[in-house]
Automatic annotation (TrEMBL):
It holds the Pfam family adh_short. It comes from the Bacteria. Keywords: Oxidoreductase. Coiled coil: none annotated. This is NAD(P)-dependent dehydrogenase (Short-subunit alcohol dehydrogenase family). Belongs to the short-chain dehydrogenases/reductases (SDR) family.
Length: 220
């Protein structure tokens, strides 16, 4: 996903074997945990290259076939952090915000060709991506105590989080069911989506800070 030529060659091979592409699922991605201030440009670029530019490469390569056939579905795996950002996950959250904006714009552009875009938005999922998320290389410094409290809160949620099967089921539902652009997946994803839409901003802010352990510092 991070190499233009590799993506183009792969899509051309699929077309030579299958003749057309009906569905594209952009699922690959990387995560990053750490303060925004401590994040290097290189670290941020790595996240955006996988989470935003990767799907863009795949879309550019696959879309001409879909347009020609006047049929197709592009499913981008986003995250609840794409509409509800979390502390110490700013770069990952911003990459998912970018993916959501790209998806909405693209859906308007290609709808007349009978091609649609779906956003699947999982909450925390018990996968290696969440369990083994990379951390920024720079020392946490002044953010250490709060970052550790937040990471502990997130790890507690991951232990009881749904498996990737829940997300796969949502992808199948998006393929086989009635069209709906946003598809919250697993755990409290649907609830979080509704809270973001209907709760006052101050209440959402307070709830997030409580959820991610602000004010709860680890014992020294």
């Amino acid at each position: 996903m991070t190499d233009d030529a590799s993506v183009s060659n792969f899509v051309q091979w699929v077309l030579s074997e299958a003749g057309k592409i009906d569905i594209l699922v952009n699922n690959a991605g990387v995560s990053l945990v750490g303060p925004v201030e401590n994040t290097s440009t290189s670290e941020a670029h790595t996240v955006f290259d996988a989470n935003v530019f990767g799907p863009l490469r795949m879309i550019r390569a696959a879309l001409p076939s879909m347009r020609a056939a006047r049929s197709g579905l592009i499913i981008n795996i986003s995250s609840v952090l794409g509409f509800l950002p979390a502390p110490f996950m700013g770069i990952y959250a911003s990459s998912k915000h970018a993916l959501e904006g790209l998806s909405e714009s693209l859906d308007h552009e290609i709808r007349e060709f009978n091609v649609r875009v779906v956003l699947v938005e999982p909450t925390f999922t018990n996968t290696k991506l969440d369990v083994n998320a990379a951390q920024t290389a720079a020392p946490l410094g002044a953010y250490a105590a709060q970052a550790e409290a937040t990471i502990k809160a997130v790890q507690a949620q991951i232990k009881t989080a749904p498996s990737a099967v829940t997300v796969a089921e949502k992808v199948l539902a998006a393929i086989n069911g009635p069209y709906k652009m946003r598809q919250p997946a697993g755990g409290q994803a649907t609830l979080l989506s509704r809270l973001r839409r209907f709760m006052p901003a101050k209440a959402v802010d307070s709830s997030l800070r409580k959820t991610f352990g602000f004010g709860k510092r680890p014992a020294s």
